[in-house]
Structures are given as structure tokens and as C-alpha cells.
Automatic annotation (TrEMBL):
<dbReference type="InterPro" id="IPR056740">
    <property type="entry name" value="ILV_EDD_C"/>
</dbReference>
<dbReference type="InterPro" id="IPR020558">
    <property type="entry name" value="DiOHA_6PGluconate_deHydtase_CS"/>
</dbReference>
<keyword id="KW-0411">Iron-sulfur</keyword>
<feature type="domain" description="Dihydroxy-acid/6-phosphogluconate dehydratase C-terminal">
    <location>
        <begin position="365"/>
        <end position="559"/>
    </location>
</feature>
<comment type="similarity">
    <text>Belongs to the IlvD/Edd family.</text>
</comment>
<keyword id="KW-0479">Metal-binding</keyword>
<dbReference type="Pfam" id="PF24877">
    <property type="entry name" value="ILV_EDD_C"/>
</dbReference>
<protein>
    <submittedName>
        <fullName>Dihydroxy-acid dehydratase</fullName>
    </submittedName>
</protein>
<dbReference type="InterPro" id="IPR052352">
    <property type="entry name" value="Sugar_Degrad_Dehydratases"/>
</dbReference>
<dbReference type="InterPro" id="IPR042096">
    <property type="entry name" value="Dihydro-acid_dehy_C"/>
</dbReference>
<keyword id="KW-0408">Iron</keyword>
<dbReference type="Pfam" id="PF00920">
    <property type="entry name" value="ILVD_EDD_N"/>
</dbReference>
<keyword id="KW-0456">Lyase</keyword>
<feature type="domain" description="Dihydroxy-acid/6-phosphogluconate dehydratase N-terminal">
    <location>
        <begin position="41"/>
        <end position="355"/>
    </location>
</feature>
<dbReference type="InterPro" id="IPR000581">
    <property type="entry name" value="ILV_EDD_N"/>
</dbReference>
<dbReference type="InterPro" id="IPR037237">
    <property type="entry name" value="IlvD/EDD_N"/>
</dbReference>
Length: 577
């Protein structure tokens, strides 16, 4: 007996022989759509973050075309729609400010339209969490198709990596090791093909997270943007989403607590970005899965970093794909009992382990064996103490081992402008043992929690050959950046966190092994200083920035807007005419 045919939600728009059905079908037909498109087959949304202002996603019209081929082939009807596109390289004051805006756009577009399942086209950093957050709040069947990383950068006969190159060459420029024309000459070679950053920055990290969570087909994270196999994957994802619509395989069956635990472990193994801490928390919040900062300690710490990619290591995403990509990493983890939940379900209907247990591994230099890890104890270090009562994070694999336990004198910058003005002052009283403290760059303070936490070192110390110093802030840092950088201090200074009370000359103690971040000032003194602070001036903002500053949650809660947390489903009780 054949199972009864599924009635899709799009039938509420297109299924009725009445005035409402007329309206919905007739206007769609102005695109040349035949009657049989409305015969009850699944309508597949292709949520596209294409934009020429998001260069990492500028090739997405072509990716969408290949998704459509797969959808048609499987008997679905594809409809492509645009959503707000967060471009990391251009958007000011930071693309993080509009991650939540994009997620609202995605959620309302999916729920309000005749869409039965959705393909999420993601690439540049914030586009992956934004689309997963929005789709999770609707809980429809969804599959992530990433645009893929750029080919290796090439400059002066060697490989260079996105972002990491900028930080390295800029330090060299400030130290007087290279000249301006040499610095600028790297621009073209760094970004020489379509795609997102080719380092293990936030885009690559979030693509790996999407794959480890089970929300994409295997190999989605690493196939280069311009490799024909990227388009095959888009095609196959189009085919698969039609099946998922028929199966009713919604996101809540994929995005379980087990999936997030797999993702946290994977982040440690790939040496992933600290930004994943915030984004995974926000996605989990949308689907109702409890996740907290200490899960990163419990599940992530002790995991070896196997993937030797910049900024922690040497290689780039192109080599990562050729070495076997994420399936090879997951296999190594699983074979050593390090995959917390091998039986977690993924979008292709198989378990994570079924997908990877025979994954080939081609290069032990790029994807290290467990007994030769890049970092023995990777993962994200969660810190707490009187300076960060609700936590802060540090990425040990990108830090200097000798600074992971450090005590030093604070040199304080009240905000980014103060930092820029002060850091070039040759008379600034600072040496390599000092701790640089930057305030007011958190979610409310910047606003949007910019990637400025990896503040550059004072030029006078760079000229002395100093390569790293302890830095602390309520900001984030680019996943392509490196250094002994304490980030995401919560509560942030602008929300009255203790960071606001730090003064020049205070002693600060960092101890990663103990998870401790301590300001050497008595409780009474700290309370008195905080009491004396005037509440931060939010600058009389209007528009979206006002909504954001009034409602954004702190870093430990994922920086979502408080009223966006949770799953609201896909039901729409009212029609439009
Ligand atoms: Fe888009 Fe890095 S700037 S991924
Ligand atoms: Mg970034």
C-alpha cells in the first residue's frame, strides 16, 4: 500500500479552487510557471544571501541554479528568495550587529511564504548562524549549502591565508620589516577566487559546525567554491531537500543536544573560531536546546586539535578538502571514542557516524593523527573570575603557551578610539608584560560586539620584536586572528560589568589551566568603583540599532535579541486577502 500523499503547508496558499488560491497562483504565473507546479508538490525555498557587497557570497546565483536542478529532478518546485546579506569585510560598525536582523528576515520570509522546506545558502561568517537561527525558529525541513572557501591565496611565491595575512603583514609593516607597497601588493593575491575566507576563520568554522551538527551533506564545509564538486553538492542538496520535505524531517530532529555536543567537540578538533561559542548558543536558543558556556569546558577541553590550518597552524581550506575534509576529522574522532554522539541524525537520513566511518584520509600533515596533534589540548578555554562573572573565552591554539598563565599590569583603553589614539603614543608606559584592556566593545557598547579584541601591539614593542601580549576585552576577534586574547568578557563594560572598573596600573591575573581571570582589587573597592561609574551613554540611537541595544543578550547567552529566543513554528493562522 502506498503511504498517503503528504499535504504540504504550501497547499494552504496554492491548493484551493477559490479566490485565495486564484490570487496566490495567478501572480506566481507571471513568471511563466505552469499549472502542474501547483499540484501539491513540495515548494522548496532557496534562501539566498547573494550580494555583491558580500564578496564571499557573490557567486551564489550560480549555486542556487544548481540547487534548482536538483529540486526539479526530485519533483519539487524551487523558489529562490533574497534575505539580508551580512558581509564581513564591508559592513560597519560590524556584521555581527545585523546577524539578528538577518535571522528575523529569514524567519519571517520562511513562515510568511508558501515554503515547505528550505535550502540555506550560506558563506560569509554571519550568514550561516543567521540563516540557521531563522530557520530553527520556524522548524521546517532545512539543509545548509555553503558557498565554499576561496582557493589558496598566492603572494610572492607562497601561499597566504585570508585575514591572517592582513594581521601578519600589518604587524610586519608597523615593525618596519616591510614597506607599504609590499603590504598593499598582497591584496589581489589574497582573494583570487570566488568563495569565503580560506583560513579556519569564522566562515570555515561555521561551515564545519553546520556539517558536524548534521545540517548539511558530508563535505559541504571544505569543497572550494570554484571546484565543480561544489556545484554537484548543491545539486544533490536540492534533490535531498525534496525528500526531506516528504519525510517531514524538520530541523528540530537534527539540531538536538547531541548534535551541539558533537559540534563543540569538532570545533576543538578543527581549531575553530571563538565566534562559534556565540553562534552555537544563539542557534541552540532558537530550537530550545540548553547550551551553556561551561559545556565548552566539559565537552571541548582535552580534545586535541587535529587540523593544521591557519591561523592556528600552516595550511588552508583547499588542502583541508584534498586531505579528506571534515568527514576525515570526524572519522578520526570517532575511531578514538571522541565523537560524543556518533548516532546523531543528519539531513541525509543517516547518522553522523554512518556518513564518515569510511571517509578517506589522504594527508596526515593537514589532518593529524591523534598521537601527533597540532595542539594536545585544543578547544576553547572558558575563564571566570571577578573580572568576568559570567565568563570570557580564549583560544589556546591561537595563543602563546608561555602567556597562558600570566600576571601583569593593566594598560586600559576606554574604547576603540582611545586605543587608536594611545597605542601609537611613543611615551605610553607599556612593556611586553603588561595586560592590554579594551572596554566598551561588547554587544551594547560598540554596538554589535566588533572583531577588535585582537588589538594590535604598540609599534614601539613590535619594533623590539615583541610578538604577543595578553589582551582582554568584551569584544570578539576574527576567526582568522591569533594571539593570547581574552574575549567576550561578560557582562560587558557598557552593561556595567566589572571590566568597566579596571584602571591603569591594576594587576590582572590570567590562568587558563584554572579557568581564572582575576582583577587584583578588593571586592569593596571594585563595588565602589562600579557604583561611581555613570551608566553608559547609548548615544540616543534610533532604528534597528536602538532595538538591538535595548534587547541584545550578553555574549554568554549568544547575543541574540531577547524576544527572538525560541521556536515559534511555521503556522500562520491568517491569510492575506
Ligand atoms: Fe567573508 Fe571572511 S570575509 S568569510
Ligand atoms: Mg570574521
Amino acid at each position: 500500500m502506498t503511504p498517503p500523499k503528504r499535504i504540504f503547508r504550501s497547499a494552504e496558499w496554492f491548493g484551493a479552487a477559490d479566490k485565495t488560491g486564484f490570487i496566490h497562483r495567478s501572480w506566481m504565473k507571471n513568471q511563466g510557471i505552469p499549472d502542474h507546479a501547483f499540484d501539491g508538490r513540495p515548494i522548496i525555498g532557496i534562501c539566498n544571501t547573494w550580494s555583491e557587497l558580500t564578496p564571499c557570497n557573490a557567486h551564489f546565483r550560480k549555486v542556487a541554479e544548481h540547487v534548482k536542478r536538483g529540486v526539479y529532478e526530485a519533483g519539487g518546485f524551487p523558489v529562490e528568495f533574497p534575505v539580508f546579506s551580512n558581509g564581513e569585510s564591508n559592513l560597519r560598525p560590524t556584521a555581527m550587529l545585523t546577524r539578528n536582523l538577518a535571522s528575523m528576515d529569514v524567519e519571517e520570509a520562511i513562515r510568511g511564504n508558501p515554503i515547505d522546506a528550505v535550502v540555506l545558502l550560506t558563506g560569509c561568517d554571519k550568514t550561516t548562524p543567521a540563516l540557521l537561527m531563522g530557520a530553527a525558529s520556524c522548524d521546517v525541513p532545512a539543509i545548509v549549502v555553503t558557498g565554499g572557501p576561496m582557493l589558496n591565496g598566492k603572494h610572492e611565491g607562497r601561499n597566504i591565508g585570508s585575514g591572517t595575512t592582513v594581521w601578519q603583514l600589518h604587524e610586519a609593516l608597523k615593525a618596519g620589516e616591510i614597506e607599504l607597497h609590499q603590504f598593499l601588493a598582497a591584496e589581489g593575491g589574497q582573494s583570487r577566487s570566488a568563495g569565503s575566507c580560506n583560513t579556519m576563520g569564522t566562515a570555515s568554522t561555521m561551515a564545519c559546525m553546520a556539517e558536524a551538527l548534521g545540517t548539511s551533506l558530508p563535505h559541504n564545509a571544505a569543497i572550494p567554491a570554484v571546484d565543480a564538486r561544489r556545484y554537484v553538492l548543491a545539486h544533490m542538496s536540492g534533490r535531498r531537500i525534496v525528500e526531506m520535505a516528504h519525510e517531514g524531517l524538520t530541523l528540530s530532529r537534527i539540531l538536538t543536544r547531541a548534535a551541539f555536543e558533537n559540534a563543540i567537540r569538532t570545533n576543538a578538533a578543527i581549531g575553530g573560531s571563538t565566534n562559534a561559542v556565540i553562534h552555537l548558543r544563539a542557534i541552540a536558543g532558537r530550537i530550545g536546546v540548553p547550551l551553556e558556556l561551561d559545556d565548552w569546558t566539559r565537552i571541548g577541553r582535552g580534545t586535541p586539535t587535529l587540523v593544521d590550518l591557519q591561523p592556528s597552524g600552516r595550511f588552508l581550506m583547499e588542502e583541508f578538502y584534498y586531505a579528506g575534509g571534515l568527514p576525515a576529522v570526524l572519522r578520526r574522532l570517532g575511531e578514538n571514542g571522541l565523537l560524543p554522539h556518533p548516532d546523531a541524525l543528519t539531513v541525509n537520513g543517516k547518522t553522523l557516524w554512518e556518513n564518515v566511518r569510511q571517509a578517506p584520509q589522504y594527508d596526515d600533515e593537514v589532518i593529524r593523527p591523534l598521537d601527533k596533534p597540532l595542539i594536545a589540548d585544543g578547544g576553547i578555554c572558558v575563564l571566570r573570575g571577578n573580572l568576568a562573572p559570567r565568563g570570557a573565552v580564549l583560544k589556546p591554539s591561537a595563543a602563546s603557551p608561555e602567556l597562558l598563565r600570566h600576571r601583569g599590569r593593566a594598560v586600559v583603553f576606554e574604547n576603540l578610539e582611545h586605543y587608536k589614539e594611545r597605542i601609537v603614543d611613543e611615551t605610553l608606559d607599556i612593556d611586553a608584560s603588561c595586560v592590554m584592556v579594551l572596554k566598551n566593545c561588547g554587544p551594547k557598547g560598540y554596538p554589535g560586539m566588533a572583531e577588535v579584541g585582537n588589538m594590535g601591539l604598540p609599534p614601539k614593542l613590535l619594533r623590539q620584536g615583541v610578538k604577543d601580549m595578553v589582551r582582554i576585552s568584551d569584544a570578539r576577534m576574527s576567526g582568522t586572528a591569533y594571539g593570547t586574547v581574552v574575549l567576550h568578557v561578560a557582562p560587558e563594560a557598557a552593561a556595567g560589568g566589572p571590566l568597566a572598573a579596571v584602571r591603569d596600573g591594576d594587576c590582572i591575573e590570567l590562568d587558563c589551566a584554572q579557568g581564572r581571570l582575576h582583577l587584583d582589587v578588593s571586592d569593596a573597592e571594585l563595588a565602589q568603583r562600579l557604583h561611581a561609574l555613570r551608566s553608559a551613554d547609548m548615544g540616543g540611537r534610533g532604528g534597528y540599532q536602538r532595538l538591538y541595544v535595548d534587547h541584545v543578550l550578553q555574549a554568554d547567552e549568544g547575543c541574540d535579541l531577547d524576544f527572538l529566543v525560541g521556536c515559534r513554528g511555521a503556522a500562520v493562522p491568517r491569510e492575506s486577502h
